[in-house]
Design a protein that fits this description.
The structure is a homodimer. Chain A has about 200 residues and is of the alpha/beta class. Chain A folds into two domains: about 15-160, Protein tyrosine phosphatase superfamily (Protein-Tyrosine Phosphatase, Chain A), CATH 3.90.190; about 160-205. Helices cover about 50% and strands about 10% of the residues of chain A. Chain A has eight helices and five strands, in the order E-E-H-E-H-E-H-E-H-H-H-H-H. The first copy, chain A, has helices spanning about 35-40, 55-65, 90-100, 115-125, 130-145, 150-155, 160-180, 185-200, and strands at about 15-20, 20-25, 45, 65-70, 105-110. Chain A has a five-stranded mixed sheet, covered by helices on one side. In chain A, strand 1 and strand 2 form a beta hairpin. The longest helix of chain A has 20 residues, at about 160-180. The radius of gyration of chain A is 19 Å and the shape is globular. Chains A, B: One of its GO terms (cellular component) is cytoplasm. Chains A, B: Belongs to the protein-tyrosine phosphatase family. Atypical dual-specificity phosphatase Siw14-like subfamily. Chains A, B: GO terms for molecular function: inositol-1,5-bisdiphosphate-2,3,4,6-tetrakisphosphate 5-diphosphatase activity; inositol-5-diphosphate-1,2,3,4,6-pentakisphosphate diphosphatase activity; phosphatase activity.
Chain lengths: ~200, ~200
């Protein structure tokens, strides 16, 4: 939380903490790298189709940060179509990476940290059981005047129940078994749980 | 992070995570209590002079949450005066409570989570060495159209260097001593450090 030297830190635009070990922002530029170092990131979820810039890749290598790229196009014709440009399956894949604590601390970003990032954080909040009014309030806080009704509809209709049930099923199953297990048996259960988590990661609604 | 039942959670208005163990919001209402429970708060920093409502006090007692109240008046004549209504000494006292990890997880709130809360979070960001542009961006994200130039000036002119130096001095002193100390001597140092932290808590610029 506290810096030891007097160098002023510059977070990326639209930076914020989402939850413990989860951050969001617009595209990080080199002047933001000293700040990003303080977060001790383990991974970055990048939501644009454009290749990651070389100097950003260099920074990731130097900090041993894993890049998860989910190429979602920025919206082209904002007013001409009522359909969302956000693909559900891609956001679901990104959500699975996002809620896996082994990837934390993680930074989600797109270009401006408003729409694509806002949609992913929105479905995370639904996964966390937030009411829709609060999810929308948060989306709008970051999108401001650029808020899109299609994004709000995307978040509203996105189904997280199946994924949550799948995850809870696995956790509950092993939690119950491990309760009565010996130390050796617990290690075996751990390996089985890892395999089940692979299934969960390939979950499709 | 995850709820185990299907009850939808309703965070207070303008709720957000500020940093690890630090949250901000507008005034929490009873429908927000189930959500607040998930944060496992140890304390609340309340920035208004009005008495805390009985049902909120009841909730705090049931959850064993400590209340720190710093009565700062809401601004009355927004446009007639260039002076800030935020008292520096009070914000400094609140900042000292806020950065003390023994009070974490902590929720900061005022009435709407915009001005008084925005000023306290603003000086925290200066304490964390954030550049002023990023501090202002964050203030404005929550204040929106209600952003006040007097608040931004308050944050800009607030001096955190003295407090930081005082805190770092204590930490550095004991860190160095404890490095070479025996277990028994370390306990003694711990007691002395606690006393020094009292001095720090009474720090006045």
């Amino acid at each position: 939380m506290i810096q030891d030297d007097n160098d002023v830190l510059e977070p990326p635009i639209n930076f914020s903490t989402v939850d413990e070990g989860i951050f969001r922002s617009g595209f990080p530029q080199p002047p933001n790298f000293p700040f990003l170092k303080t977060l001790q990131l383990r991974s970055i979820i990048y939501l644009c189709p454009e290749p990651y810039p070389e100097e950003n890749l260099e920074f990731l290598r130097s900090q041993n940060i894993q890049l998860f790229q989910f190429g979602i196009e920025g919206k082209k014709k904002a007013s001409s179509s009522a359909a969302s440009s956000i693909p559900k399956q891609t956001i679901l894949e990104a959500l699975k990476v996002l809620i896996d604590v082994r990837n934390h601390p993680v930074l989600i970003h797109c270009k401006r940290g408003k729409h694509r990032t806002g949609c992913l954080v929105g479905v995370l909040r639904k996964f966390q059981n937030w009411c829709l009014a609060s999810v929308f309030e948060e989306y709008q806080r970051f999108a401001g005047a650029k808020s899109r009704t299609t994004d709000l509809r995307f978040i509203e209709t996105f189904d997280v129940v199946g994924l949550r049930d799948c995850l809870y099923g696995i956790i509950h199953h092993y939690y119950r078994l491990a309760y009565y297990a010996s130390k050796k048996r617990r290690l075996l259960l751990y390996t089985q749980a890892q395999q089940d988590m692979q299934t969960y990661r390939h979950y499709k609604p």
